[in-house]
Amino acid sequence: MNIRFESQLKNTIASGLKSLYQLNVEASSIILQETKKEFEGDVTLVVFPYTKTSGKSPEQTAQAIGEFVSASDFPLESFNVVKGFLNLSVKKEFWKNYLATISNDHSQLFDPKKTSDENFKPSKLMVEYSSPNTNKPLHLGHVRNNLLGFAVSNVLKACGHEVVMVNLVNDRGIHICKSMLAWLKFGNGETPASTHMKGDHFVGKYYVLYDKKYKAQVEELEKDGVTKEEAERTAPLHVEIQEMLRKWEAGDPETKSLWEKMNNWVYEGFAETYKKLGVSFDKIYYESKTYLLGKEIIQDGVASGAFFKKEDGSVWIDLTEAGLDMKVLLRSDGTSVYITQDMGTAQLRFDEYPGLEKLIYVVGNEQDYHFKVLKEIFRKLKRNWADGLYHLSYGMVDLPSGKMKSREGTVVDADDLIKEIVEEAEMATKAQGKLDDFNSPEAKELYHNLGMSALKYYILKVDPKKRMLFNPAESIDLNGNTGPFISYTYARIRSVLRKGGAMKLEADKFVSHDSSPEEKLLIKQIYQYSVVIKAAADAYSPALVAQYVYDLAKAYNHFYHEHIVVDAEQKDITSFRLHLSEMTSLVISKCMAILGITVPERM
């Protein structure tokens, strides 16, 4: 149900409980659910929680509440009682009037100010996602991260919240120096342009090469009788990489210049991949500019007693009371650890964005402990925004063996994945014969959009917390729970609207039409939009939007197969069905856009 409509019904039921049984119940605590398909009704109230106070049987309690609602202003057509379940049927006129209302004014469906609960207050939120390293290209794990972060941001915006979308690029450290040193020693001056490689792939190649050369040196030292531990520490490349890092941190001009050049190559590559994925950011932070900020917070924490310093000079925090452990925040030599940077960045963001209520980190579940520690640190520091740190923890993505190219059999590059899925979409579309006289550029755009709809929908339809298996072949199925199926349904609706557009009368002309069960179901599905968006925002789960839009597409296809939409002999009915089709297409388009998916106007 629409949020305000649901609120009206809950208030009516709450009034009934007070009038009938002198029971004071908060309307917001009343739980309503969709009536099961085997029973007549639109919405169901479970009355068992109220029978103790009513002193009557569940059936008698439900009957009395049903009669109270019938006598109220709520547009109830009928009700029935099945044991302790009160099934309520809303008047048909209500659904038709609602379709007329939203057809005349789309904001009555999409504007959260008009659909939210009267008590709803928008929040100022920040979502951090992507967070790549500048020593390798984006991979499959980043794909889920980016798609999830972008979609969650869109869901929150659709719910009426103010959202800042940010990326923190890990552009410094020993791992970045590895690519730099390998290129300096073995690159012979080649560049992404000279090798016709994307910049991120080019730099990633040298990261892999460093590892290969370093392991070879370690093996040689071990053959000479050096222990493995000593070999790893004294291998020439390791010694050189430590010196390069020291120079970088000291601001050595030559080292900094090389670092900037290679990072810029990577940024160009990242930008291309982000464009293919259709994701963006309002602001990008760089670790090289934020990693020292946490040190000041640590010194303040030592002074306040929130942290303590050991004899060797290292700084720690004791989190055992919170069920965690002792955590080092600063090494004995004064260098920072990973969480030091996150401390500084978190403080910076709340300083930069006054009124920020929540900072949502989209990061894999392997970092669960890290973010528990981060929150507890700021609780210890008595930051009033500490509880606003939220880790949106998601599961890893696996692929069927051998389905995609991979580097050393483990990491699947995002660009390879995108290329493969677009090719799969092209083959599937051609096999189905779905093209309507597309020229080459149009067809290319369609294949890309369908491929990306397959990739995005397949990943986003899974609850973020769950680990998932991505099956490329299954994702492009035009008949399953997939992005291409929903895209095809949308294109079908737009074709119907083009065919019958001239017969679409003013929306209030069709109120007299006695809608069929399939038509009523579609209107009810559309009516659920605001409830689904709110639930998805509350749970940070685009999967709820994905399931909803799939159910809506299925409902339209069922309606389409049962009814003639454009009928020259039935102008009033045709107009009604065209309005219903148009609103369905708008909701599909809106939901898919929230998921970051572009739907085709024709196929």
Describe what you observe in this structure:
This protein has helices at residues 3-21, 51-54, 58-71, 92-104, 107-110, 112-115, 140-158, 174-186, 192-195, 199-223, 228-234, 236-249, 253-277, 287-290, 293-304, 338-352, 368-380, 414-432, 440-460, 472-475, 483-500, 517-527, 529-539, 542-562, 571-594; strands spanning 32-34, 43-46, 76-82, 85-90, 124-128, 162-169, 283-286, 308-309, 315-318, 326-330, 358-364, 389-394, 397-398, 468-469. With 603 residues, it is an alpha/beta fold. Among the domains are: 3-90, 2-Layer Sandwich (Gyrase A, domain 2); 422-594, Orthogonal Bundle (Isoleucyl-tRNA Synthetase, Domain 1). The protein is globular, with a radius of gyration of 29 Å.
List keywords for this structure.
603 residues; alpha/beta; Gyrase A, domain 2; Isoleucyl-tRNA Synthetase, Domain 1; five-stranded parallel sheet; 14 strands; 56% helix; globular
The CATH topology of the domain at 422-594 comes to Isoleucyl-tRNA Synthetase, Domain 1
Helix and strand composition category: alpha/beta
Low-confidence stretches: 402-409
Query: What is the helical fraction, as a range of percent?
Result: 55-70%
What topology emerges from the helices and strands here?
Blueprint: H1 3-21, E1 32-34, E2 43-46, H2 51-54, H3 58-71, E3 76-82, E4 85-90, H4 92-104, H5 107-110, H6 112-115, E5 124-128, H7 140-158, E6 162-169, H8 174-186, H9 192-195, H10 199-223, H11 228-234, H12 236-249, H13 253-277, E7 283-286, H14 287-290, H15 293-304, E8 308-309, E9 315-318, E10 326-330, H16 338-352, E11 358-364, H17 368-380, E12 389-394, E13 397-398, H18 414-432, H19 440-460, E14 468-469, H20 472-475, H21 483-500, H22 517-527, H23 529-539, H24 542-562, H25 571-594
Parallel strand pairs: 5-6, 5-11, 6-7, 11-12, 13-14
Antiparallel strand pairs: 1-2, 2-4, 3-4, 8-9, 9-10
